Amino acid sequence: MNVSTALLLAAACVPPIAGRAHPTARETGCAAGWGMISMPLVRPGARFAAVAGGDLHSLAVTADGTVVAWGDDSSGQCNVPAGLAGVVALAGGFEHSLALRSDGTVVAWGAGEPDNPTDPFGFGQSAVPPGLGGIVAIAAGDWQSVALFAPPSLAAPVLLPNGSAQLTLSGSARMAYTIQASSDLVNWTPLASFVATNAATAILDPVATNFSRRLYRATAP
User: Fold this and answer.
1) 39, CA 20 to 30 Å: which among 23, 170, 182, 184?
2) Radius of gyration (Cα) for the chain, nearest Å?
3) Which fold, 25-149?
4) Nearest 5 degrees, angle CA 101-CA 107-CA 113?
5) Which letter, b or e, does each residue of 49-65 get, where b requires 16 or more Cβ atoms within 10 Å of its Cβ?
6) Distance between CA atoms of 213 and 131, rounded to whole angstroms?
7) From its phi and psi, is residue 141 left (phi > 0), alpha (psi between -120 and 50) or beta?
8) Measured between alpha carbons, how far is 62 from 50 in angstroms, rounded to an integer?
9) In order along the chain (221 residues), what is the average pLDDT of each group of 10 residues?
């Protein structure tokens, strides 16, 4: 059961927006905490953009993308990694913490770190898979961590002098994708199927100029 601080999405108190008799917490920038571990005074004037609660610890993202944490720190779950910045979301597990950065990467700390084999609560929940990227959401359970990949997207094709078209897929490394082409949105022909090694992958359509129009889509299983 989560008995740690529950917080409103907020920040340091600022004047309410004009014309609003009952501004939201995000607008006023006020944060509140209650429960077994109350919210400490983080620092005067701090503004927060997001919060999360673990089992006995709490986390908050300041408006500049840095992280503060308080509560139980028995497994280092409140020991925010030095230099962590650009954070847009947080998640708290039993004794570990997760942060999602604006570049789609994930940072984890606390129980389950790979360099602590004697950790009694270590199940790999803080061992972020190498190369993990393109993430848009995170969540933490007691002993596990999960991440949601962004859907793939295709940039507008660029016609090359040889008559082919070059597409650029934006996706996630180590994910499998299939690129298909069509001239009528009904019949689709596979162009390429591959496991991405980078966040961006170039694909060629060698017969693009054979059609009056050419449409593309990317799918991930």
Assistant:
1) 23
2) 23
3) Methylamine Dehydrogenase; Chain H (2.130.10)
4) 175
5) bbbbbbbbbbbbbbeee
6) 37
7) beta
8) 7
9) 31 34 40 62 71 91 89 93 96 96 95 78 88 91 93 92 93 89 94 90 93 92 72
CA-wise closest residue to 2 among 92, 90, 80, 75 = 92
Here the tokens at position 198 are: 């980078």
Asked whether 105 and 58 are in contact (CB, 8 A), the reply is no
How many residues does the structure list for the chain? 221
- Residue 177 and residue 40: Cα distance in Å, rounded? 46
Q: How many C-beta neighbours within 10 Å does residue 17 have?
A: 10
pLDDT of residue 33: 63
Predicted confidence at residue 8, as pLDDT, reads 31
Distance CA 20, CA 7 (A): 22
Q: How many CB atoms lie within 10 A of CB 198?
A: 14
> Tokens 């620092």 map to which residue?
43
**Residue 99: Cβ-neighbour burial (10 angstroms; 0-12, 13-18, 19+):** buried
Q: How many Å apart are CA 207 and CA 191, to the nearest integer?
A: 10
- Token pair in block for residue 120: 């009694």
Q: How far is CA 191 from CA 84, 98, 201, in A?
A: 40, 37, 13
Closest to 59 (Cα-Cα) out of 28, 23, 87: 87
Q: Six-digit token pair at 37?
A: 């571990």
The domains of the chain are located at 25-149, 153-219
Instruction: Determine the pLDDT at residue 137.
Output: 96
